[in-house]
């Protein structure tokens, strides 16, 4: 009963944070990027929580349960990716005023690339959000002994209440709480207790095969695929770009992302060790995705179990809310606003779009049954189709619109084809898809001429080629002055 009360109090706290965020969200910029006012602690907390979702927590423990410490490679790839965003992209995004991945594409390659990339980005953010909703259902099912669909709906409804109310301000306030809950629940409570229950590291080594303690136990092909998916793919993740722009300055954005990457790498190691210890104390789980919840229920006393379950909820909810607002921002900024002009610049329009995106994510979550699988399929298509054109748009002045469209089509077509041939969760789709995109993009860029209006310009110098205003309702290329820290 105490554990259930802790979970309920946590959910109520999230709704309360939504109310506080609503009072701060007076403009579209407040709603989409928290007014670009976050200082180092709030920014780093928010950036970390968007990384450490269900795939990193529930899925990370699941991989540790199956493969040992090498199961951390998924989260490690995400951690390196989030640090790379700060190092490589912070300056260009801040100087250009770009809010979304499709906007970055359209600056150099024009309106057709905006629409194509919007479809892919929305699909990716939706599917990863679906993975988080599945993770929420897994946790609440264990705690309350209710059907998974009911559990997922409860978590989804909580996310919608605080996200729709205050947008990025509410999400950031909840992220700070969730960051502290996850840190305490995983590092200070679950990790030491489950390792102790397993008899310590020496007993774990004696009990389990040697591959559980090999850094490559999960397989080199899987390590390579995860790196391609979650390192490269994460650098063009809309949720990450949007979080980057919540920072009050370029310096905060860059260094906060690096610190976040270090924290997330440690979190990944902790999750893998929890799963490895869990393989000793619960060796015959039918579904490895249940490892986090089942291990917690076995080794934790009343009260602490509720805290650790709240940490799992925090992981899923923070990532889900960030991704869903990312999808709604792309739809509003890059699809609907070009059609509706300034009429879609209001907070009300952002709220309606966010709620609609959330409804779609809930519906899809009822048809998908694997947290890591949902994320993998979405990340395959994102990385294969968009990584090469986006990097080309930002770093290669010779790149052309024809090459971008050809690269997107080649990467996505090859990726989908190998999903059909090798299976949805195979490693080959992203590898061959990215190779095809790179070959086509480079070949066509060298064979065609850039648009004279943008040829020779650095990314941050490019005009808003589609004539669309950004999420704040001001010209997207216009610099936004720094605001006071929050």
Automatic annotation (TrEMBL):
The keyword Transport applies. GO terms for cellular component: plasma membrane. Keywords: Membrane, Transmembrane, Transmembrane helix, Transport. InterPro entries: Na/Glc_symporter_sf, Na/solute_symporter, Sodium:Solute_Symporter. One of its GO terms (molecular function) is transmembrane transporter activity. Coiled coil: none annotated. The chain crosses the membrane at residues 6-22, 43-65, 71-94, 115-144, 150-172, 184-206, 212-234, 255-278, 298-331, 352-368, 374-395, 402-424, 430-447. It is a multi-pass membrane protein. It is found in: Membrane. Gene3D superfamilies: Sodium/glucose cotransporter. Its main location: membrane. Signal peptide: none annotated. Pfam families: SSF. Belongs to the sodium:solute symporter (SSF) (TC 2.A.21) family. This is Sodium:solute symporter. It comes from Streptomyces malaysiensis.
């Amino acid at each position: 009963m105490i554990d259930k009360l802790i979970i309920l109090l946590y959910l109520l706290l999230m709704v309360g944070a939504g109310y506080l965020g609503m009072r701060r969200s007076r403009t579209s910029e407040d709603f989409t990027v928290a007014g670009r006012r976050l200082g180092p602690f709030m920014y780093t907390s928010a950036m970390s929580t968007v990384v450490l979702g269900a795939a990193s927590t529930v899925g990370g423990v699941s991989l540790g349960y199956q493969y040992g410490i090498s199961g951390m490679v998924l989260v490690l790839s995400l951690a390196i990716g989030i640090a790379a965003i700060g190092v490589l992209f912070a300056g260009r995004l801040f100087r250009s005023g770009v809010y979304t991945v499709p906007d970055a594409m359209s600056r150099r390659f024009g309106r057709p690339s905006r629409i194509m990339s919007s479809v892919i980005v929305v699909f990716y953010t939706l599917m990863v959000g679906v993975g988080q909703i599945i993770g929420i259902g897994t946790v609440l099912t264990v705690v309350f002994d209710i059907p998974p669909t009911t559990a997922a709906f409860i978590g989804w409804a909580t996310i919608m209440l605080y996200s729709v109310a205050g947008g990025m301000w509410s999400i950031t306030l909840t992220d700070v709480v969730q960051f502290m809950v996850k840190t305490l629940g995983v590092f200070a409570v679950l990790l030491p207790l489950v390792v102790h229950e397993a008899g310590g590291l020496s007993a774990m080594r004696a009990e389990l095969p040697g591959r559980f303690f090999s850094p490559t136990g999960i397989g080199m092909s899987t390590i390579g695929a995860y790196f391609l998916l979650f390192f490269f793919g994460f650098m063009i993740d809309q949720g990450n770009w949007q979080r980057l722009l919540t920072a009050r300055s370029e310096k905060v954005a860059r260094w906060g992302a690096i610190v976040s990457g270090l924290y997330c790498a440690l979190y990944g190691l902790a999750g893998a060790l929890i799963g490895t210890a869990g393989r000793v104390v619960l060796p015959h789980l039918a579904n490895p995705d249940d490892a986090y919840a089942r291990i917690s229920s076995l080794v934790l006393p009343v009260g602490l179990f509720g805290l650790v379950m709240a940490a799992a909820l925090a992981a899923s909810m923070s990532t889900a809310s960030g991704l869903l607002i990312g999808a709604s921002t792309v739809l509003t900024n890059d699809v609907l606003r070009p059609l509706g002009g300034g009429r879609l610049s209001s907070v009300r329009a952002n709220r309606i779009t966010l709620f609609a995106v959330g409804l779609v994510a809930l519906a899809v979550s009822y048809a998908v049954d694997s947290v890591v699988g949902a994320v993998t399929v979405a990340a395959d298509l994102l990385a294969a189709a968009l990584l090469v054109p986006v990097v080309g748009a930002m770093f290669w002045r010779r790149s052309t619109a024809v090459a971008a469209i050809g690269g997107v089509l080649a990467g996505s077509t090859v990726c989908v084809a190998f999903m059909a041939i090798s299976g949805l969760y195979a490693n080959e789709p992203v590898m061959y898809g990215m190779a095809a995109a790179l070959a086509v993009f480079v070949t066509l860029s060298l064979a065609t001429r850039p648009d004279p209006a943008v040829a020779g310009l650095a990314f941050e110098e490019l005009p808003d080629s589609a004539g669309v205003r950004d999420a704040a309702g001001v010209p997207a290329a216009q610099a936004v002055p720094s605001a006071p820290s929050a």
